[in-house]
Amino acid sequence: MDASQFLTIFISAVFIYNVILSRFLGLCSFVAISKETKPAMAMSLSVMFVTTMSSIITWFIYRFLLIPFGLTYLRTISFILVIATFVQFVEMVIRKISPPLYRFFGIYLPLITVNCAVLGVAVLNVDMFFINGRAVPGSFYYSLFQGICVGLGYALAMLLMSGIRERLDLCNVPKAVKDFPLAFIIASIMSLSFLGFNGFKF
Amino acid sequence: MEILIPILTLGFLGLLFGIGLALASKKFAVKTDPRLEKIVGLLPGANCGACGGAGCFGFAESILSGKAKIDACRVADDKIKEQIAQVLGRKLEKRAESVAILHCNGGRKVKDRFLYQGIEDCVAANLVLGGQKECVYGCLGFDTCEKACPFGAIKISEENLPTVDANKCKACNKCVLICPKNLFTLVPITHNVYPVRKDTFSSAFSNGVYVACSSHDLGKDTIAVCPVGCIACRKCEQACPVDAIHVIDNLAVLDYDKCTSCGKCVEVCPTKTIRKRE
After folding, report:
1. Closest in B10, B24, B28 to A74, CB measured
2. Under an 8 A CB cutoff, do B119 and A171 touch?
3. Model pTM?
4. Containing H/E element for B275?
5. B184 and B251 together in one domain
6. What gap in Å lies between CA B142 and CA B140, rounded to an integer?
7. How many other CB atoms are found less than 10 A from the CB of residue A57?
8. Is B210 helix (H, G, I), strand (E, B) or coil?
9. Residue A37 is assigned to a structural domain of this protein
10. Chain A contact for B30, CB < 8 A?
11. Domain boundary residue among B58, B88, B118?
């Protein structure tokens, strides 16, 4: 395990390969929930929680179930199965334990079940931290950290986008591009600017 | 054999998760009042917040616990409220209906003091020396109230003044709260300022009287900036047969409980500030 590896994972997950603006994953929630900062941050927190937890669970599934049986080609379907089950389970638990938290997360959790960013992290983890069907040293910690960082990258993009859209609400925007068309234009310009991080090498 | 392993593995996983979730849903089941869901289904779902609850769900909860009256909802019509009352087995208590009106008739008749080039929003414009209009009490004419209205009842007219469609207005108080000049008030519909709402009121009530000005300036200062402002001449006070209108702090104020909308004050008002809705 190499400490500098964590820095590399952090910078590449948050900036260079930002899950929304460079990898183009999880776009539907990015456009739909970025109108105001508060719900955008709630959604980001939920995503961060789910990506982190699903990184842990999928690592165990991959390492102890799929690899020993030689079933690595089943990873997509089994990951989806695990993530969906986990999110459903968490929703139930939250609903029982803390109603205020349920009201805060409740609307977003079902959305995350089908968010491809979450599956993206899981697939990315096994692509990067398993070589020839073997876990690289420290691969569990790398996966966990990457899960957190992808969530952070998602939160960054959501925060920027919702801030811009909140400001734009006060401007006189031509009717033809109001709301969603403008959101798409902003997203593409932001994505272009994140392309600038691409030259960095570690 | 080769196909059996993936089938068994995935089947096993699916079965495990399925049973797990089934058990979890039993263990973590939350008991909810079945009436709550019915009420939420009946409510309009506009989540306007006019009732004071946090959206329709919060309102349904407070009706159920008896904290709020069913009639606090401004959007639902009487049929729906009756149904909700039936669900709860309670009687429906009715509230006096009201509509929003604008106490300003300046619009384009009032000139601008300076060229305002900021955010096109009354709240923002009001921060700059109290807005660009010569009259500091009057309507600034941006579409802040139009945007704030959740029911599309407010439209900015050609006169650059907001007009309220009484058929659509639910008296949710949003325009009253957002207007930086405090120009909107809710007026009881029995003092029928607006002619419409034909479903509940006959046309006999169609000529309600209201004061279309909010300026507390002296008459001389008001007339200098606005041809239709209240100049506090007190002619209406003398003309009123039921003592319903009084000039308080340089502005005519109407007592809707006393006013019979006879129209005498409208006739004598020299600036046509007191108006009757046609």
Report:
1. B10
2. yes
3. 0.64
4. strand B274-276
5. yes
6. 6
7. 15
8. strand
9. yes
10. yes
11. B88
